[in-house]
Amino acid sequence: MLATTPSRITASLIQDGPAHRADLARKLSVSRTAVTNAVDLLLDSGLVVTLRRSAEGAVLKDRVCLSPQFGLIGTVIVDFTETIIGIGTLDGRLLASRVLPADPQARGEERLRRAATVVRELIEESGDGGELVHTQLAVNTQADRRTGEVLGGIASASWSGTNPKVLLEEDLGCPVRLENTVRLLALAEQLERPEVSDLVYVQLSYGVAMGLVVDGRILGGSRRGAGELGHTSIDLEGRPCSCAGRGCLMQYVGRSALIADIEAVLGAGTDVPDLFSAVQEGHAGSVELLGTYGRRIGEALVAVCNLLEPTTLVIGGMLSPAGEPFLDAVRRALTDRALPLAVDDLRVENATGSRRSATVLDAGLLCLRQDASVRATVISRSLDTFRTRRFPQVS
Ligand SMILES: [Zn+2]
User: Fold this and answer.
1) Is pLDDT at 1 greater than 50 in this prediction?
2) CA of 204 to the centre of ligand 1 (A)
3) What mean pLDDT comes out for the span 279-289?
4) What domains appear along the chain, each with residue ranges and CATH number?
5) Which pLDDT score, from 0 to 100, does residue 2 have?
6) Minimal CA–CA distance to 224: which of 146, 137, 325, 281?
7) Which whole number is the average pLDDT over 255-265?
């Protein structure tokens, strides 16, 4: 009985985060006394702590939290421009983080080795004595979540010959769960909008990547291959693509296409910021170009909206600084082409830039905590520690 209630309490704290004793009793359908007794035992063992959340003018009761002694989780998010690294507790409290700017020439292996060193430094600096039990890694390439194998062409060049999952597992000495960076950013954008449970995130860069969040969870496919919008053909006889297909969206709205189109309108050597300035000054050719890109992206998303009917479409990346004129063109294309039921209530918004805040780290920790197999493993491991501490004579 005692072993059951502590394990159910810890499972609930991992899944839903810190909670008051009364909330735990309600959620687990057990008496308040049973929860208090179990929490007291867990407090004695050092696996949980109680913390008071400060709130202006309000006296709040202590919330039950998992301590670093229960185990630490790490998250490493690799993007084109930076590597974001954090450590936290299993109930999702971020303890420490660091951002490393990325050298564009650096290989994936080099970046992961530096990230692993930073994870160890953060654990040491936090001084809590917790042990790293699992890490969530997100990489900016197509990689098989199960094996860690990197697949794909030119975009994956910096990862060739490297298995990011295996490398980090060996370096950190703990299991690593693999995710795609854009899918993780989609979850971060959803966390920025607590009122929304499903969302489509599109990131415009060298390619066009997409992340889907349904019911607050990433919908990424069994191997994490779902969301490669950039390789959806918009013209079966069109421009050749690095994927060996033809007419892929990225060949029409990716960075190379955009720069070529901007130079055709504004002259050689011009870039994306020049387009934004020209649009603000009302330059007709630039306004038209921005509208064309918005329409192409909106049209490419018609099928996505007809299939999923998301409440929110979030656009991030190189064209999002253009703001409303660009978003309007996306909206118009969707309204013109998609079915009314799929898009009538759709919100089309700019990304919040969640990667610059702690939200992306929260999303990294949340991915791990949402994984039922991760929860089962860490609970069983930590409750062994609990039993050893509580009943040392038994072990
Ligand atoms: Zn392609």
Assistant:
1) no
2) 15
3) 96
4) 4-66 (1.10.10.10), 69-181+363-371 (3.30.420.40), 193-351 (3.30.420.40)
5) 42
6) 146
7) 97
